[in-house]
Write a structure and sequence with these properties.
This protein is mainly alpha-helical and 417 residues long. It is built from twelve helices and nine strands. Helix 4 packs antiparallel against helix 5 and helix 8 packs parallel to helix 10.
């Protein structure tokens, strides 16, 4: 395990607690896709401390060749980039300042971002790169007005597209451009699309054409990563497995659902609006099924009809309150509020925060804290408990989600609506 760098919010000393359980069972090879492999979520954002260890250090230049680029300053942008949205329905935390967000972001960059010799950048997860991390980095860098890093991450995404134009879910660090037939992971594609829309709003005069690229990427998600299942538009977990069209593996992943994004996509991409609206409605129908069955929690994985294939609330499912809290902040949807109230009921019935969390890190505790955003008093208590807890947020996954959650808690994660 590499050395660990603790994130310095409020000068807390974070104890090194066991971060995770054992690795998840790898998914089977995708039938009919020679040489391809469905995402193994043990390494792509699912479970296990071995899959959550983050590399430490600065922006080392990695890869063959000479004259490699150097990374953006580890200090990040000189000021917090994100303009607060004009409409924000959730509670906001007054104790998270812009300066603290900048410090968190700079620490995250130093620990997890590296430059490649061809001008691209990567977010490193135990020596490898997953598309999820590239997309998290895009969301963080656009929020912090760090265009150099954003463009470098987006370059890496594009350089490693599969046959459908979606990034292969896993590569080696600074792998040469090309299709390694690993296939895509839908959560990364959704996050990258949202980040491109945010970039088009932040840098409207950029030659990169972020909005057109977001529309094209969204169209590929619709085409390759959704299914119609018993009248519901369902999000597949990848472009080569899952959903009801895959006879060998019909699973879906509730933590990939992004109903807040869907509302944004429907507004910007009118030709796709019906599909995104249908995905949004299906998400809340499935959330209601999960919470009724699991005493207000959701599973890591389920069948397309909401029945359970894996009933645990673990390292995939822990992100789901964040996804829903984003929608509530942006839209005020009453279905999102109901979901958050249900999560909060579960947390309060299990000792409150941080005691209720299955693991003592921000991936779990921070997401639970965001679920309290329907009420200012509850939210303040949750956020204070989250930031006052002893946490191990040094691995890539926990550390990346931590900063994303902080942006939402501070009301600094813009929908661009």
């Amino acid at each position: 395990m590499t050395s660990r760098v603790h994130l310095p919010l409020f000068a807390l000393l974070f104890a090194l607690l066991p971060g995770c359980g054992g690795p998840a069972e790898p998914m089977p090879s995708v039938p009919g896709a020679a040489g391809s492999q469905a995402p193994d979520r043990a390494n792509a954002g699912a479970v296990g401390e071995d899959s959550r260890g983050g590399s430490s250090g600065g922006f080392a230049v990695v890869g063959a060749g000479s004259g490699g680029s150097t990374g953006p300053s580890a200090a990040g942008s000189s000021s917090l980039g994100t303009t607060p949205p004009s409409t924000w329905n959730s509670a906001k935390s007054a104790i998270i300042s812009a300066a603290q967000l900048e410090t968190e972001y700079a620490t995250w960059k130093t620990a997890h971002v590296e430059a490649c010799t061809n001008g691209s950048f990567v977010v490193v997860n135990e020596g490898a790169v997953v598309s999820e991390g590239i997309a998290y980095g895009m969301l963080l860098s656009v929020a912090m007005a760090d265009q150099a890093l954003f463009d470098g991450l987006w370059k890496f995404y594009q350089d490693h597209a599969d046959k459908n134009g979606l990034m292969n879910w896993k590569t080696t660090k600074c792998e040469a451009p090309g299709n390694n037939n690993a296939n895509a992971a839908t959560d990364a594609d959704l996050d990258a699309t949202m980040a491109l829309i945010q970039a088009s709003s932040r840098w409207p005069n950029a030659a990169a054409g972020y909005l057109a690229k977001a529309e094209a990427l969204a169209g590929k998600i619709v085409q390759f990563e959704t299914d119609m299942c018993d009248g519901l538009r369902i999000l597949r977990p990848g472009d080569a497995f899952g959903g009801c069209s895959d006879p060998g593996d019909k699973r879906i992943n509730p933590s990939y659902f992004s109903p807040g994004y869907y509302k944004v996509f429907a507004k910007y991409f009118s030709a796709q609006a019906a599909t995104w609206s249908a995905l949004r409605d299906a998400s809340y129908q499935l959330y209601a099924i999960y919470q009724a069955r699991m005493s207000n929690l959701v599973p890591d994985w389920s069948a397309p009809d909401g029945s359970s294939n894996d009933g645990q609330y673990w390292y995939d499912a822990c992100r789901t309150p964040w996804r829903v809290a984003v929608d509530y902040a942006w839209s005020g949807d009453t279905r999102a509020k109901t979901f958050m109230e249900n999560i909060s009921t579960w947390v309060d019935a299990h000792g409150g925060l941080p005691q209720a969390a299955q693991q003592q890190n921000s991936a779990f505790i921070g997401a639970f804290a965001l679920a309290g955003g329907y009420d200012q008093g509850k939210f303040d208590g949750y956020v204070t408990a989250w930031l006052g807890a002893q946490l191990d947020d040094t691995p890539y996954y926990q550390g990346s989600l931590r900063v994303l959650y902080l942006l939402v808690a501070a009301g600094k994660f813009s929908s661009t609506l």
